[in-house]
């Protein structure tokens, strides 16, 4: 009993694979825990891949709902996280094809000052540098951008990035290098 | 030695060992790559600093050219850190919208008879399974995975099939017995189901760790 009351939500201690098995059998509470666990990095990924925050939210929502429908067929050959990344990346790429950005530089997801999520210690200069990085990211080729985001913002190893993007580790490394190169140049004025 | 062997090509990725040899004699594998004065490729210096698993490569640590190359990315790194730490707004609302959509197409499973003499009362499988999984979870060191319920015969009998993830700190038979008892009790008391048998398979091992910390390691990552 002590163990139960110590947990904020039942099942919060369960590993992803167990939650995914339960969710596949229709347990929506287990799926809610997976959503809670993974929505932050997936939304961050989608916001970097798409040009406006609404599209990013829509992509992540579609990805989760699609995952819920496909869970009964999900064979657990990949980690749940990798599987979700892959669905989200595919969704973002489809949305990019469907809606070519009209004003890519103006509508890019930028950190707005004064939001609840801004760190109080952040200086205006840091905000501007972050905004510049977001703009530079938006100008990268989609393949390079997703590799860079998965590596630098999400900390995935090459192997998992290759799996998510359906390519080889060597291609991932090449894209990562070119992305770093381009970003370094774009961020030159901020040194 | 790499200098004499132009075919010695990059192979092992960082994280799974050391990066490719990366000496000047290697053909730069990536467009725009360059050879640093120390003979290393720029791409390798960056990979060593950013992606390689510990321990750190001694050359990268001591070489001034590599260090300079790595410092060239400092501005990008600082901005990336800031970007990484940002919580996207609308996160909570997004999770709520996802769950609204999910619950609108809930998978209920079959209808099961409750232990009611008139056989009028029924419960959907997913709801019953949720309660029985919770009963299994109350046994320390045990967590239910699958839970299926199948009617047996023409009456109100139901058979439960469950798989468990179990910690290995106690003998398995004890624990499985406890789970079966807990599931039977809950089926009778909480649901009013006549469960004839609870078939249990131990399908996974629970990693040792704090009993109910924020989350167990999922095995994700490198």
Automatic annotation (TrEMBL), chain A:
GO terms assigned for molecular function: DNA binding; sigma factor activity
SUPFAM superfamilies xref list: Sigma2 domain of RNA polymerase sigma factors, Sigma3 and sigma4 domains of RNA polymerase sigma factors
A single GO BP: DNA-templated transcription initiation
CDD domains (alphabetical): Sigma70_r4
Keywords assigned by UniProt, alphabetized: DNA-binding, Sigma factor, Transcription, Transcription regulation
Domain RNA polymerase sigma-70 region: 34-99
Domain RNA polymerase sigma factor 70 region 4 type: 132-183
Record family assignment: Belongs to the sigma-70 factor family. ECF subfamily.
NCBIfam families the UniProt entry points to: sigma70-ECF
Protein name (record): Sigma-70 family RNA polymerase sigma factor
Organism field: Streptomyces griseofuscus
TrEMBL record, chain B:
Biased composition range(s): Low complexity: 14-25
Region Disordered: start-end pairs: 1-32
Superkingdom of the organism of origin: Bacteria
The name this protein goes by in its record: Asp23/Gls24 family envelope stress response protein
Species annotation: Streptomyces griseofuscus
Organism taxonomic ancestry: Bacteria, Bacillati, Actinomycetota, Actinomycetes, Kitasatosporales
């Amino acid at each position: 009993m002590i163990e139960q009351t110590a947990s904020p939500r039942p099942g919060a201690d369960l590993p992803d694979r167990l939650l995914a098995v339960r969710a596949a059998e229709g347990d929506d509470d287990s799926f809610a825990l997976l959503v809670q666990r993974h929505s932050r990095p997936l939304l961050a990924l989608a916001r970097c891949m798409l040009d406006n925050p609404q599209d990013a939210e829509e992509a992540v929502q579609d990805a989760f709902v699609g995952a819920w429908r496909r869970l009964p067929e999900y064979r657990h050959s990949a980690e749940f996280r990798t599987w979700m990344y892959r669905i989200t990346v595919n969704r973002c790429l489809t949305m990019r094809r469907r809606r070519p950005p009209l004003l890519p530089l103006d509508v890019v997801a930028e950190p707005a000052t004064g939001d609840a999520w801004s760190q109080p210690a952040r200086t205006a200069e840091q905000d501007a540098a972050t905004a510049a990085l977001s703009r530079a990211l938006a100008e990268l080729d989609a393949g390079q951008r997703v590799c860079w985001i998965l590596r630098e913002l999400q900390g995935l190893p090459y192997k998992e990035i290759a799996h998510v993007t359906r390519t080889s580790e060597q291609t991932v490394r090449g894209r990562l290098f070119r992305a770093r190169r381009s970003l370094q140049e774009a961020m030159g004025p901020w040194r | 030695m790499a200098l004499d062997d132009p075919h010695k090509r990059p192979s092992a990725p960082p994280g799974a060992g050391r990066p490719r040899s990366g000496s000047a004699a290697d053909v730069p594998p990536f467009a725009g790559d360059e050879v640093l004065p120390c003979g290393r490729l720029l791409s390798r210096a960056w990979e060593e600093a950013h992606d390689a698993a510990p321990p750190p490569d001694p050359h990268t640590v001591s070489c001034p050219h590599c260090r300079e190359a790595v410092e060239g990315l400092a501005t990008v790194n600082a901005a990336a850190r800031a970007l990484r730490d940002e919580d996207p707004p609308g996160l909570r609302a997004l999770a709520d919208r996802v769950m609204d959509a999910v619950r609108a197409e809930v998978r209920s499973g079959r209808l099961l008879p409750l232990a009611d003499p008139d056989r009028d009362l029924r419960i959907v499988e997913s709801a019953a399974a949720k309660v029985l999984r919770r009963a299994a979870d109350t046994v320390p060191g045990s967590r239910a995975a699958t839970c299926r319920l199948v009617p047996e015969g023409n009456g109100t009998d139901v058979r439960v099939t469950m798989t468990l993830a179990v910690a290995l700190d106690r003998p398995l038979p004890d624990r499985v017995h406890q789970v079966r008892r807990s599931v039977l009790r809950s089926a009778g008391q909480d649901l009013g189901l006549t469960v004839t048998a609870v078939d249990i398979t131990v399908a996974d091992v629970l990693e040792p760790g704090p009993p109910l910390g924020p989350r167990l390691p999922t095995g994700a990552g490198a």
